[in-house]
Amino acid sequence: MKRLLLYIICIWITISAAAQEPVDTLQIAVADEVKQEEAPARKLSLIRRVIRGFDRLDQRYIEPQHYVFAAMVQGTMNYDIYTLRSSADNSQSITFAPDQELRVGPYAGWKWVFLGYTFSLNNLGMNDGRKEFDLSIYSSQIGLDLFYRRTGSNYKIRNANLRSPQDFSALDNQPFDGLEAGVTGFNVYYIFNHGKFSYPAAFAQSTIQKISCGSWLAGFGYMRNSIELDHSSLQQLVDEKMGSQTVPLDSGLMFHSVKYVDFSLSGGYAYNWVFARNWLLGVSVQAAVAHKRTISSMVDDNKKNRFSFSNLNIDGIGRFGLVYNNMRWYAGTSMIIHTYNFRRSHFYTNNTFGSLNIYVGCNFGLKKKYRKKES
Q1: How much is the pLDDT for 300?
Q2: Domains in the chain, number
Q3: pTM exceeds cut of 0.85
């Protein structure tokens, strides 16, 4: 999967690089020999024109980037929530989430390349076992999300309802190191009204939306999810905190691991609201019909306690951005939310993860074609 993600990034960079190059103009030659010599140039020019079409803008609605370089400081807060629920009668549910982690770091950009690094302010010099890689690429016509997450063992119980109407508040915020999860995947989507609507204006600060506008979206995605649960340790924690009021876990929560792959088709709508000069509020919502293939190993290894199946679920992706951008300076905040569901007659899980970003930055190195305009 890592190799697949690397291939996708390389292909995207190649297309973006070609899109930055100006379209060659061809001169009509009279002599046949000159025409033959210029044939390869014509083909190359056609390819460039097709690629350049991916970022063609209607400048009545969108102002393109004037600068070559960018610098930015960003603070990021990631969140990751898992809800596990048995679906039997009097179903039990438990919600797990780690403490919020604040990460801060610098970013630098050159044309279409924008790279940076953030470090945690919560655990300086400490390794909690968490590994995260999130990358979102926004062009005017196509968007791409890549994500790779491996959680550590620093979850806490945020809410528990093991047998209503009992009070299980004694379990709230109790550390639990028996849950580990991993998510790997990508989403690709097409922006239909890409000439007038700019995703980069709301989430990449590389253009400016001048007139409010929206667009329909359509895409597909792939995800691989795994959950490892030490249900014996969970039962021990419940017994310890609940005392005489303790209850046994339902069979739906007594599993060692759940693993599934997710193939989805998504559709949605995005809108950029220009409510004042240089100000933008962007909102994007996509719903996905997901086909999941799952194999789960239950409490023992007997074949009768294993299940494999395919089913359909509804997943979702939401993006929200508030930006001030006068082309030279920009600042704002953005949020990305992914939510994935899996449902079976005796088991249900929901994983919601994403990030909240706050940033401030500037662009510099004016492009040649804009120097005369500003001089």
Answers
A1: 44
A2: 2
A3: no
Same domain, 231 and 257: yes
Tens of pLDDT, residues 281-305: 999 999 999 888 776 555 444 444 4
Query: What pLDDT is recorded for position 188?
Result: 93
Q: Hey, CA dihedral for 99, 105, 109, 115, is it positive or negative? A: negative
Location of structure tokens 């996905």: 288
Residue 206 in this model has a pLDDT that exceeds 50: yes
318 and 364 together in one domain: yes
Q: 55-66, pLDDT tens digit by residue?
A: 678 889 999 989
Q: State whether 46 and 166 are in the same domain.
A: no
* DSSP state for residue 166 in the 8-state scheme: S
> How far is Cα 15 from Cα 47, in angstroms, rounded to an integer?
11
DSSP character for 261?
A: E
Together in a domain, 212 and 85: yes
What are the DSSP E strand ranges found in 151-278? Answer: 155-161, 174-176, 179-191, 208-209, 213-229, 255-276
Same-domain pairing of 48 and 106: no
Shared domain for 117 and 31, answered yes or no, is no
Instruction: Answer positive or negative: Cα dihedral of 103, 109, 111, 113.
Output: negative
51, 67: one domain: no
